[in-house]
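Lab meeting notes turned into a lecture example. A postdoc, R.K., suggested we walk through two folding results consecutively so the class can see how the record format repeats. The first protein's sequence and structure tokens come next.
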Amino acid sequence: MFTDSEGRLYPAWAFVLSALIAFVAFVACGYLAAALAGNHALRFEAVFRSSLAAALLAAFSWLLTVGDHVESHRIAAQGLPLAPGWRRQFWAGCALGFILVALAVSAVGVLGTLKFQATLNSHNLLRAVLVLWVLLVGSLAEELVFRGYPFQRLLEAIGSGGAILVFSALFGLVHLMNPGASFWGLFNTVAIGVVLSVAYLRTGALWLPWGIHFAWNATLGVVFGLPVSGIRLFNIVIRTTAIGSHWLTGGTYGLEASLPGAVVVLFGLIVVWRAPWRQLGNRSTLFPDGKMDQQLSDDTTAAAPPPPQLGL
């Protein structure tokens, strides 16, 4: 019922089990962070997001061992292969995330008003470095859940179109718990989830979506000092107030609930879809018969396979 003739979990059951494990990890890491950080919000985020990313990597590696019978390259199988071009894709994602946010913020500055307040001292600079770490590991944790093992198994079970819709909707719904959440915030966050999912499918790896995700949050919260999905915690050195119509500024939720935000997300989708990204590997090549394709894993000079059809 749960496994095939070779003892491997069926993709649908692997998805269900990995989703349950991710939820348990989320709750357990939340309690751990609360115990270690107390009421210190930034310390809580650092402990929570770091422990969550580590727990997810470990848990999904275990699932790959018992569910897929993969004995090596388990981190690569989750979407983090160290194949040629992985650094380039991560930094390309960072560049794209920065450009998208900068374009949207520029539109708000031209059509509305941006009031900047900077507090520059050694203490705040150290806190800003901690914030960047929080955003880096936090975006990794979210990618591991929403584009990593659970997404990849649902992809096998129902196809790319259904998997993108399910996980993009979940990505948006999770953010409804954030301050100032609204319908437009939900809509734009779901759309961002689509962009990140397509980025995974176009490259077969998490490096590009992780870079986009991290840079989007870091540029928005640290560089421009604006809310990140309603959260102001990351505005350490610069804190900015956007003044204008709700459709322009997104209100307290911020840029991700605005029209400029929606426009740049659409632009990002076009770039991710049309750019000639190199395939670093995907489950169809890494698991052709339930085991890692050793040649692809060991021969880092192998030619990349053609990009998969998205089936949207």
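The second example is placed directly after the first for contrast:
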Amino acid sequence: MADTEPAPARLSFDGSLTVRTIAPLRDAILHAFASHAAIEVDCAGAESVDLAFIQLLIAARRSAVASGKAFGLAAPAAGALRVALEQGGFLPHGGDLFWDATG
């Protein structure tokens, strides 16, 4: 049986993912939500991540759930994102499937 679900919109964010760059990142997510039922975010190229970006991802995740859409990471959190999550206490003991799984 063929999969009829369209591929998720893929947003690639790299470089500095911080409060100074958050507005265009938020706008990209909002634009993707306006025209796609599923979004995946690729943060592999992130060089620095702060709380503002983590809050953006959490808010987008909640908005997706509330609107019946799918939102997730393209790959498990690694690199700068993983470090920021660990330092901020966002990874509960045993992990969190949002940060540790794809889609």
